[in-house]
Specification:
Two copies of one chain form a homodimer. Chain A has 13 helices and ten strands. By secondary structure, the first copy, chain A, is of the alpha/beta class. Chain A folds into two domains: about 220 residues, Rossmann fold, CATH 3.40.50.1100; about 90 residues, 3-Layer(aba) Sandwich (Rossmann fold), CATH 3.40.50.1100. In chain A, strands 1-2-10-7-8-9 form a six-stranded mixed beta sheet, sandwiched between helices. In chain A, strands 5-4-3-6 form a four-stranded parallel beta sheet, sandwiched between helices. Chain A is globular and about 55 Å long. At the A-B interface, α11 and α13 of A face α11 and α13 of B.
Chain lengths: ~325, ~325
């Protein structure tokens, strides 16, 4: 750890060693059609192929594997709209620990069911009237269980950063120079981790985070220089990115390392999901599609080198996905 | 070429060199969930990531690139329900040749539109009352254009066989021994190509083709020892695999090299498409899902080494895909 930031590139390398034997080295894919459409070279890091269908397993495993043997029996507690939930549940099962996850009652059904199927206890709460922090905090105290934040934790940030190391090595294997990286951003853990990893060895690479327009807290925080919050009642189809404000640990890193923040509308996200279905043949969830949406909408500046787009997750209910790809899910046609 | 078969492993290696700079080396993916479900090690070769969303580009490019400069201007003619159509169209565009494709009027809309978008002329015919062979033959004669068969052509078979070379080298890179390969089968071109490539260097590998139950012509031909046809009027949701009988060139190869043929029902195909959506996060078309369906239904024998499953294509109309993943497309619930 440096004194300035919550994590250093060494922490990401340590995380990579920790998860090497259990996580998927997800593919870095290239599509001629996407290159042609954007007039640039694009590589797609597909975290839908990670265990549990999103990148969250990386950080969760790196956090849980650091827990002392004496503390294992009491297990862990987390809150999550679903991807961190599944990541923690899968890591806990691998490590033989009990896990309780506090999830909003309106989370995608696929995420709730998968979390339960992974052996975790799911505690549902009402997003409008209850506090997930209070529920999780009480659970944690009562059980002596360790609370595992979804982004504001050094081991979690470092775990997500392993994506950055993989991008650099996979691009190098293919003889490609990475010019910029577009990262889906909620609390900023993946963004901070990837930025830390990539800026350490390829400092000229430009890093952009991408948020839903209604949850543009990182964009506004970067503009004002301090952690801003989104107005209460904001909504988006990007359930995985409905974070109120940037993290205490993640924001200073992102403030130092990011070239900027981009935002996309829910309709742009729907179009990106359709593009991935029709052209890339990949299933993408709304929150996992924001970086691709920014690329397809031409929001990313020209890069000197390839543009890497993170597809961060693919856990989407079939009914919503069906509505989006048949266009019946489009609110403003 | 050997004297016995239409192609040899050298022809596949020659095809690999021919397409190396233009085709996608598609990923060979592993899913812990799939391993756990089947109790075996499974690798998935995802040809949805190939240009035009199916493996067909490989054979088409290898065939078209062999056409003499003097014959290029007259172009090519092909018939296809859609994947070979797009493969030929994409290869023709890359090589600067005109292409006309005869397609059934009930082909998936996505396949017709994509073929046109690739610059090919699409000639529609009625599957029940017209002969695609006659229409394509006449077109070919009138224009002096070369007819490009979808499977019964040595260069096409060799091109599809490049998948086999990639599987062997990708598995070797990962330190994995391939025990058996399950291949989606229509006319048997991809099956014959892959079998030729793999049996040459790894003769102990077991190769199985997988067909829709209603189009089990290769299964029945292997049983009887001669090329059998399916009854007229047979139907399947696997539009890409509705081939009447095994090829003249492909069948002798498959007869010599295959360990057997498996068949799956349309409902088993629907279940496999849902599994790929929910768990693997990959879009798969019906014809591309038969090998996965055979694996999921436990039809493949135990293998000594990993089982490789080919997902051969992913061009599916959104309405059909939506109906399948929401289960509303299931005929026998």
């Amino acid at each position: 750890m440096t004194t300035r930031f919550a994590i250093s590139a060494d922490d990401v390398r340590s995380a990579a060693a920790m998860i090497a034997s259990v996580a998927v080295r997800t593919p870095l894919l290239e599509f001629a059609s996407l290159n042609a459409l954007t007039g640039s070279r694009v590589l797609v890091k597909f975290e839908g192929a990670q265990h549990t269908g999103s990148f969250k397993f990386r950080g969760a495993y790196n956090r849980l594997a650091r827990i002392d043997a004496s503390a294992k029996a009491a297990g862990v507690v987390a809150w999550s709209s679903g991807n961190h939930a599944q990541g923690v549940a899968a890591a806990a099962r691998l490590l033989g620990m009990p896990a309780a996850i506090v999830m909003p009652s309106d989370a995608p059904i696929i995420k709730i069911e998968n979390t339960r199927a992974l052996g975790a206890e799911v505690v549902l709460y009402d997003r409008e009237t209850e506090s997930r922090e209070t529920i999780a905090g009480n659970l944690s105290v009562r059980r002596g269980a360790i609370l595992v934040p979804s982004y504001d934790d050094p081991f979690v940030i470092a775990g997500q950063g392993t994506i950055g190391l993989e991008i650099l090595s996979q691009a190098a294997e293919a003889g490609i120079r990475v010019g910029q990286v577009l990262i889906c951003c909620g609390g900023g853990g993946m963004t901070a981790g990837i930025a830390t990893a990539i800026k350490d060895t390829a400092p000229a690479t430009q890093i952009y985070c991408v948020e839903p327009q209604a949850f543009d807290d990182t964009a506004r925080s970067l503009a004002s220089g301090k952690r801003e919050s989104v107005p209460k009642g904001a909504r988006s189809i990007c359930d995985a990115l409905m974070t109120n404000s940037p993290g205490e640990l993640t924001f200073p890193i992102n403030q130092a390392l990011l070239s900027g923040a981009l935002t996309v509308s829910d309709d742009q996200v729907r179009s990106a999901i359709c593009f991935a279905f029709e052209t890339m043949k990949l299933v993408v969830e709304p929150g996992g599609a924001v970086a691709l949406a920014a690329l397809l909408e031409g929001l990313a500046p020209p890069a000197e080198g390839a543009t890497v787009v993170i597809i961060s997750g693919a856990n989407v209910d079939p009914e919503l996905y069906a509505a989006i790809i048949t266009k019946s899910g489009r609110r403003n046609p």
